[in-house]
Structures are given as structure tokens and as C-alpha cells.
Specification:
Layout (H helix, E strand, L loop, with lengths): L9 H14 L3 H14 L25
């Protein structure tokens, strides 16, 4: 992957941060997904690269550990 800088409005940043927390992924992952949707919008041949699966444990009660 390559690194790039993007300027976002405060509203975009806040909503992106909230969505990333809700989905349990990074903001960068959400941005990559959005770009894939945009690129595939009018190009049915576009195939996004599949991200590596991530294993996440969320909201596990401490008595279960």
C-alpha cells in the first residue's frame, strides 16, 4: 500500500471516526472501501483488492475471559 494525505472537513472527519468505531475498523479502511465503491461505480471490470481478514473481539464480558 502507498501512503497519501487527504484533507477532510470537520464534519467528514467526525462522521468517519464515528462510523469506524461502530464497524470496528480503521478510518483508513473505510476510506479505501469508499474509493473502491467510487471506482467500481461506472467500471464493472474494476475489482477491489481484498483486505486481509482481521480478527476482533469486541464487547466481551470479563467473566468470559
Amino acid at each position: 500500500m502507498n501512503r497519501t494525505n487527504v484533507y477532510l472537513t470537520e464534519k467528514q472527519l467526525e462522521r468517519l471516526h464515528t462510523r469506524a468505531q461502530q464497524e470496528g475498523v480503521s478510518m483508513a479502511e473505510l476510506i479505501r472501501r469508499a474509493i473502491d465503491v467510487f471506482l467500481a461505480w461506472d467500471d464493472p471490470a474494476y475489482l477491489p483488492t481484498q483486505p486481509k481478514p482481521q480478527i476482533q473481539i469486541r464487547n466481551v464480558h470479563s467473566s468470559l475471559l
